[in-house]
Amino acid sequence: MSVRIYTILLITVSMIMSCNQPENIIEKELSDNWSFKQTSKENWLPAEVPGCVHTDLLANGEIEDPFYRLNEHDLQWIDKVDWEYKTTFNAGPSIIEKGKIELHFKGLDTYAEVFLNDEKILSADNMFREWTVDCKELLIPGNNTLRILFRSPVQVGLEKHDALDYTFPDPPNDLAEIGQVEGNKRISIFSRKAQYHFGWDWGPRFVTNGVWKPIILRAFDKAIIRNVQVEQMELTDESADLLAHLEIESLSETTVNAICLIDGVESFSRKTELEEGLNKVVLPLEIQDPEKWWPNGLGDQHMYNLTFQIHEENNTISECQERIGLRTIEIVQEPDSAGTSFYFKVNGHPVFMKGANYIPQDAFVTRVTPGKYDYIIQSAVDANMNMLRVWGGGIYEYDIFYDLCDEKGILVWQDFMFACAMYPGDDHFLENVRQEAVDNIKRLRNHPCIALWCGNNECLSAWYNWGWKDAVEERQGKEVADLIWKAYDDNYHKILPLAVKENDQRFYWASSPSARTGIPENWVEGDVHYWGVWWGKEPFSYYRTQVPRFMSEYGFQSFPEMSTINKFTIEEDHDIYSDVMKSHQRSSIGNETIELYMLWDYKKPKDFPMQLYVGQLTQAEGIKIAMEGHRKAMPYCMGSLYWQIDDCWPVASWSSIDYFGKWKAQQYYAVKAFQDILVSPELNDETIDVYVVSDRLDPVEGKLKMDLVQFDGNIHWQKEMNVNIKANTSQLVFSTDKDKLNGNYNENECLLSTKLIIDDKEYSANILYFLPPKDLELPDPNLVYDIQEEGDTYIIQISSDVLAKNIYLSTGDIEGIISDNYYDLLPGEKKTITFKPEGKISAEELKDNMKIISLVDSY
């Protein structure tokens, strides 16, 4: 058994700084008066910092919308040239007279030469690192000039590629086709920057430059708290024993009083002798009768407010505030009859992880607003998720992402930023990675949402399972293959785990997917990425049988809805094989594969809008099989994270929420499939099996109601039974041969309705059809609806006298949130949903724009 137990504490950090400083410390964000230009040109234009070259060009009208139609193709010149940014800022006497003055660069993208008053102060080469430069000697009273020269990542990548006497493995075809290579040279791997910027099989190719996080001018005397780690030593129902590790920089030898307040009440105080330089001070803390932090669905996310201060002669000279949450988590790997388990235990309880993979929400990350972060994380909560996986080809997200996950109970599987490649292993590269890891571990280590650190995405699989090792050995020899593998081994088996151990002690997982360190996925241990559905053209039914211990990636594509398509196309583009639609589809097998699977189960849609609608149903129905199949296989399988929840531009992709925030059918299906208590019927050959799955930590009494219903409403067979819903488990509660159902019925005209009643209310409902939708004799429903206005929300009640399959309500150009969509309505039943528009509209406006269809309208 290999079990790592660790505890996490919640820290809420602003994007600029986690500490509120007294007058002794002055901090100023340098966000004003910026301008930029192409280095070979003379004309300076206004710039926004934080930002990037592409968004600044767009704001100045120098380029068209990069996402519109085929504009992306015409903007590839931007990453081939160098760019320059500059600003002036004032340093008054209150700053100049301080004992230490520094510039703190939170994020520079990527190859940056920084000049202060024309003196070079920094050479940066890593988008993911923070850089702090002492600038007291160069700062002058009054106006100062800060200038940053950004070199082209493409040109630097080419130089690094050409400097080697061997080549790295070729990227997958999709990545090669969309810009992971320049000419025939793979260049993205040489730059420590977001890999998806070079293009991916769901994203555009925009290789950015710029200041992507704030620049802080900081001046102080005496001492400053640089960093705080709150380590939880023991957590019981009676008390939480903590150690607060403070890093304090002092400008001289001095004596201070280090204080911690918990929820405003002083908890500990200690006189401490500080030496000149960096000091490490440890404060023991205790919280009596602690309230625990729980993942979404299992309890509250209780927070404690901690304030750390250092006093000199009763004056506060530095202060840092944090909000913490207390919980324990284990990743349990325990031998069993099938292999080795892999599951998360939170606060002593095994927890099935329900969720999705997460990518950056925009090709230009500085455009993602706090509201958009809140919307995506809240959408995960609303879909009953408890985990998101931050994928290794994007960015270590902004602080607000983790703050929201903390507050809403979403655990984070955190990849380091490496994906689908073998990377360099020279000393400079590895040291750069080490510093990157330390910076981000320290920044994020106090968040309870961080469940584990993972070294990379699919790099191990690529080496062994995609043929890279054999190809390198065949073309360049075993010596080169060994050199490339050594770089892998040094990075993921030495550099990164040591950085985690020295700075955090969380669980470290070397590669996703893998069975163990250095051992590729094998389905009986570790985690798995399953792409037999989609890439292998295997049927959706395989999701029931291809079940691992933890499924950290799987998925299927769909198109966004018509309102999103209209934002980046014109009418002549409305064909999935038009140049524009193909450009907004980055999988080499994309639209053909969507259509292939669609026609396996559905009749050919009559037009383009219906093709979008049925495509979303295809995705949702397929992924529903996986979500429910993984949950029904617990405790053998204890995680289901589909690919992916969001998009970084308007595109056909595996997302369940499109770029503009529109929920696809799959997101609505996830709400039901990830419900804490689920009823799930399935047809296995001639046998009907009904499962009940519960994530709750206590048993529940319920009633299972099953009806064999004809599409016109006639009932052929009924059964009710009491069910003891066991805690935190999956159980088969009913099974029968299909031919034992009473009554004469045609399979193409009947369905099995299963409903779970808890406390006299319908809690979970699910429908089993005996044939694919294309073989069903669906009636044409007469949908009747009523709209009532309640405050800023509209209540819509829909009914039908016959089965209405996959009802889809569209509100046209009226933006807003629909509580449920793409659902089946049984004969004679009424469905009540809500619609909350973004702005104020009248009921008449809603009626004029609203359209309701069902599956029969698609052909």
Report what the structure shows.
The chain is globular, with a radius of gyration of 28 Å. Residues 1-18 have low confidence and may be disordered. The chain has a 6-stranded antiparallel sheet with strand order 4-3-5-11-8-9. A 6-stranded parallel sheet has the order 32-31-30-29-28-35. Strands 1-23-26-27 form a 4-stranded antiparallel sheet, with no helix packed on it. It has 5 domains: 2-19 and 222-325, Sandwich (Immunoglobulin-like); 25-216, Jelly Rolls, CATH 2.60.120; 328-415 and 530-673, Alpha-Beta Barrel (TIM Barrel), CATH 3.20.20.80; 677-775, Immunoglobulins (Immunoglobulin-like, Sandwich), CATH 2.60.40.10; 784-858, Immunoglobulins (Immunoglobulin-like). It has 859 residues and is α+β, with helices and mostly antiparallel strands. A hairpin with a 6-residue loop joins β3 and β4.
Would you kindly provide a brief summary of this structure?
The protein is α+β, with helices and mostly antiparallel strands and 859 residues long. It has 16 helices and 49 strands.
Tell me the layout of helices and strands.
Blueprint: E1 2-8, E2 25-29, E3 35-38, E4 45-46, H1 53-59, E5 83-91, H2 93-96, E6 100-105, E7 108-109, E8 111-116, E9 119-125, E10 131-134, E11 142-150, H3 153-163, H4 173-177, E12 181-182, E13 185-186, E14 210-211, E15 215-220, E16 223-235, E17 239-250, E18 254-262, E19 265-274, E20 277-288, E21 304-312, E22 315-324, E23 327-333, E24 335-336, E25 339-340, E26 343-346, E27 349-351, E28 353-358, H5 370-382, E29 387-390, H6 399-408, E30 411-415, H7 427-444, E31 450-454, H8 459-465, H9 468-476, H10 478-503, E32 508-509, E33 528-529, E34 551-553, H11 562-568, H12 579-583, H13 590-601, H14 608-632, E35 639-642, H15 665-673, E36 677-684, E37 687-694, E38 700-710, E39 715-725, E40 729-737, E41 750-758, E42 761-769, E43 784-790, E44 793-799, E45 804-810, E46 816-818, E47 823-825, E48 830-837, H16 843-849, E49 851-853
Parallel strand pairs: 28-29, 28-35, 29-30, 30-31, 31-32, 33-34
Antiparallel strand pairs: 1-23, 2-15, 3-4, 3-5, 5-11, 6-10, 6-15, 7-14, 8-9, 8-11, 12-13, 16-17, 17-20, 18-19, 18-21, 21-22, 23-26, 24-25, 26-27, 36-37, 37-40, 38-39, 38-41, 41-42, 43-44, 44-48, 45-47, 45-49, 46-48
Helix pairs in contact: 5-6, 7-10, 9-10, 13-14, 14-15
